[in-house]
Specification:
There is one protein chain. The protein is an alpha/beta fold. It contains 11 helices and 16 strands. It has helices spanning 10-22, 44-49, 107-120, 144-157, 171-177, 191-200, 214-226, 254-261, 270-274, 277-289, 319-332; strands at residues 2-4, 26-31, 36-41, 58-61, 83-85, 88-90, 94-100, 124-126, 161-164, 180-183, 204-207, 232-236, 266-268, 294-300, 314-315, 336-337. The strands form 3 sheets. An 8-stranded parallel beta barrel has the order 7-8-9-10-11-12-13-14, surrounded by 8 helices. A 4-stranded antiparallel β-sheet has the order 2-3-1-4, covered by helices on one side. α7 links the parallel β11 and β12. α10 (277-289) runs parallel beside α11 (319-332). It is elongated. It starts with a strand and ends with a strand. It binds phosphoenolpyruvate and manganese (II) ion (MN). Residues 102, 272, 298, 308-309 line the site of manganese (II) ion (MN).
Length: 340
């Protein structure tokens, strides 16, 4: 990482980047409030031999020892990344709420849910058009028709859309509708998919894999960041352990630990971890109090009739009260739900 002097000129930054590229390495320029930092990724020896410390405008050069570079806290020198989605922010003091059904089922239920969560104060609408199902015989989502319904829900409610990309062949169609592309737990290490999602330039919500370490998650984020896409939101959604009393073990320690390791915002999905509606609120409150930067939660007007993940969906009629309690828990950690 090359840290430029305060007030280094654009030409000096470009000159350093050009020397880096000359030896076949990549230069990622990040402009902070006071100083510009250039993240250099390439052969350590070749880059070291450049003697960049002596270049005009360079203050100092710091080696980053972690295997992830662009995602590391060091890269932003302690500054937090705040991702802005149509004026809704996540990260730093901003707590983001994302709610909606597991899967897009029909126009009526999607629009109904979208209105309910918007009126309660949720900021983004979630819903899968393409679903990664454990069984090939389960409903796989409405596909392009689902994407069209999401676009309609956005037009109707103004809520930006979070929807999952599961296959590189759908990238263009999904990127057209999504304000945030979700990469699901099962695809966290699908590196081709991460690269394509990165290239779209659309913000990416990256969920932790079922059996992935925190470092694996940060390496996956690095794939997106490496494509020049700086808007990555990480999501803890529960991991597999020996415990079978609930669907997954929600690893809330991952929240403060990730926030120590990375500048990226970290949100929590209590729904998929719990697998049961009654556990969703306690885990949401715990996540917010632990300092999570937001929540992504499943909600349905009639969970009994949901095609997918009904048992864990909050009842839409209870959503507004749930959100008020969540707001109080987030306040304990010094974070605010932004009124839209
Ligand atoms: C989802 O959000 O609907 C989903 C499938 O989540 P995960 O990838 O975390 O299982
Ligand atoms: Mn689901």
């Amino acid at each position: 990482m090359v840290v430029m002097k305060e007030g280094a000129s654009q030409a000096q930054v470009e000159a350093v980047a050009a020397r880096v590229k000359d030896v076949g390495a990549q230069a990622h320029v990040s402009r902070g409030e006071l100083v510009t930092v250039i993240g250099v990724i390439g052969d350590r020896e070749h880059v070291g031999n450049l003697g960049l410390e002596a270049e005009p405008g360079v203050d100092h050069v710091v080696p980053i020892s972690k295997p992830y570079k662009l995602a590391s806290t060091q890269y932003k020198r302690g500054e937090r990344t705040m991702v802005d989605i149509d004026g809704r922010r996540v990260g730093g003091p901003h707590f983001m709420t994302i709610a909606g059904p597991c899967t897009v089922e029909s126009r009526e239920s999607l629009l109904d849910t979208a209105r309910t969560v918007r009126d309660a104060g949720a900021q983004l609408l979630r819903g899968g058009a393409y679903k990664p199902r454990t069984s090939p015989y389960s409903f796989q989502g409405l596909g392009e028709a689902g994407l069209r319904l999401l676009a309609e829900a956005k037009a109707e409610t103004g809520l930006p859309i979070v929807t999952e990309l599961i296959d590189v062949r759908h990238t263009e169609a999904v990127a057209e509708v999504a304000d945030v592309i979700q990469i699901g737990a099962r695809n966290m290490q699908n590196y081709g998919l991460l690269t394509e999602a990165g290239r779209t330039g659309v913000p990416v919500l990256l969920k932790r894999g079922l059996s992935s370490t925190i470092e694996d998650l940060l390496m996956a984020a690095e794939y997106v960041l490496k494509e020049g896409n700086e808007n990555v939101i990480l999501c803890e959604r529960g991991i597999r352990t020996f415990e079978t009393a609930y669907r997954f073990t929600l690893d809330l320690l991952a929240v403060p630990v990730l926030q120590e390791q990375t500048h990226l915002p970290v949100i929590v999905d209590p729904s998929h971890a719990a697998g049961r509606r009654d556990l969703v609120e306690p885990m949401s409150l715990a996540a917010a109090a632990a300092g999570a930067d937001g929540i992504i939660v499943e909600t349905h007007p009639e969970p009994e009739r949901a095609i997918c993940d009904g048992p864990q969906a909050l009842r839409a009629e209870h959503f507004a009260d749930y959100l008020r309690r969540l707001e109080q828990a987030a306040a304990l950690a010094g974070k605010e739900l932004q009124a839209v």
